[in-house]
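pipeline stage [seq->struct] | target=adenine phosphoribosyltransferase | organism=Monilinia fructigena | residues=225
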Amino acid sequence: MGFYILLTHVRFRIPPNNQSLQKGPLYCTHTILNIKLQPYPSKIKSNQQLTQDNASQRREPESTPSSSELTSVTLKLRKALRNFPDFPIPGIDFVDILPLFANHDLHESLIRALELQVLLVNDGKKPDVIVGLDARGFLFGPSLALRLGAGFAPVRKRGKLPGPTEEASFEKEYDDIIATGGSAQAAGKLVEQLGGNCMGFLFILELDFLKGRDRLNSPVVTLLR
């Protein structure tokens, strides 16, 4: 059973006076993430039946995926992003992705770009499940899953999902930067705990210098770099 983990973007704090990013964290906490694949186990089909149904109902791409189409679409999406320095607190450079939902054309282009990214990286192979992390992964995940004919599984903090769940913990660092990769890594562990195969991680935005992808053991792709 193939899973694709969808995340949104990285928020970061600019180090004062260009000090080293290698400074250790001031303190750490452990956050528990839960994943739920079957909200109502007694009322829906088994995972195997759902996987078979997803495979049979998958829609074919509107056109053959091409890197040129992806490049064209991402250029349009990138122009719609807005940057807000010192938001929500001084030192934070915030990239606002909400304009991508401002009109139908941009929204449709975003989901098409995500679909193309998944198909091109995996040679046309589609995942069975799209995993979206709380909260912005919920904005894109269901729509992408619908396009790919896949199921959608939410990942949230402990206590936010009813019924039986799988859980994994990750260390979150607080310092001059907000370290990346921890929540994605934990989501990957959840997929493995459920016996799934993590086909990859899909980010909307990424800050290369934080090296969050180095913590992940499946292919990592970023839509808007």
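stage status: PASS
auto-comment: The longest helix spans residues 104-121. The chain has five helices and nine strands.
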